[in-house]
Write a structure and sequence with these properties.
heterodimer, A: 109 residues, 6-stranded mixed β-sheet, 5-stranded antiparallel β-sheet, 0% helix, B: 113 residues, mainly beta, 7-stranded mixed β-sheet, 4-stranded antiparallel β-sheet, 50% strand, globular
Chain lengths: 109, 113
């Protein structure tokens, strides 16, 4: 099956700093989503981005499908950005999402 | 517009027992997928239901079974519970069963003692 790797696994930032999270995947994909999992376990949709670039406030994402990676940018980080960020992909063969291991982000005040 | 809902929120069971978890999809969605998330890991796909049929299954034993009802809601059943079944169980819904954005519910946290 498709492999999804996220980096870095852990990230500690000072409030106001910028960061880039990376997601590499091993095969072509039909779907790629970025999620933020809050401390209560809820997965919150950030971006549905199988290709191209999208922006939503302080967050933006870029997927380069031909090179099999996606980037999530967080600018001017806030303490409420803390949590785990997951990248998940759906390959051409099926309709299940395969998740990466996540990036655990802590933003300090 | 109601999002994906799941019940119960928390559940404690004993090894060998059976459990049923429930999910109602987001309004307008007809496809439900179930995922298991062990502590410290990413969610893993269990199976997906569309048109009341199991369309795809991940690498989970037959102890895990499911059902989808005509109103698109779904149940996940786990028989002969093991300690290793302790996890957060997440339900996701989408409009269609191929290549559509999935939305997740808040999850059911199952503890097996």
């Amino acid at each position: 099956g498709i492999q999804v790797e996220q980096s870095p696994p852990d990230l500690i930032l000072q409030e106001g700093a910028n960061s880039t999270l990376r997601c590499n995947f091993s095969d072509s994909v039909n779907n790629l989503q970025w999620f933020h999992q809050n401390p209560w376990g809820q997965l919150i949709n950030l971006f549905y981005i199988p290709s191209g670039t999208k922006q939503n406030g302080r967050l933006s994402a870029t997927t380069v499908a031909t090179e099999r990676y996606s980037l999530l940018y967080i600018s001017s980080s806030q303490t409420t950005d803390s949590g785990v960020y997951f990248c998940a992909v759906e390959d051409n063969a099926g309709n299940m999402l395969t998740f990466g291991g996540g990036t655990r982000l802590m933003v300090k005040p | 517009d109601a999002g994906v809902t799941q019940s119960p929120t928390h559940l404690i069971k004993t090894r060998g027992q059976q459990v049923t978890l429930r999910c109602s999809p987001k309004s307008g969605h007809d496809t439900v997928s179930w995922y298991q998330q062990a502590l410290g890991q990413g969610p893993q796909f269990i199976f997906q239901y569309y048109e009341e049929e199991e369309r795809q299954r991940g690498n989970f034993p037959d102890r895990f079974s499911g059902h989808q009802f005509p109103n698109y809601s779904s149940e996940l059943n786990v028989n002969a519970l093991l300690l290793g079944d302790s996890a957060l169980y997440l339900c996701a819904s989408s409009a269609g069963h191929k290549t559509y954005e999935q939305y997740f519910g808040p999850g059911t946290r199952l503890t097996v003692t």
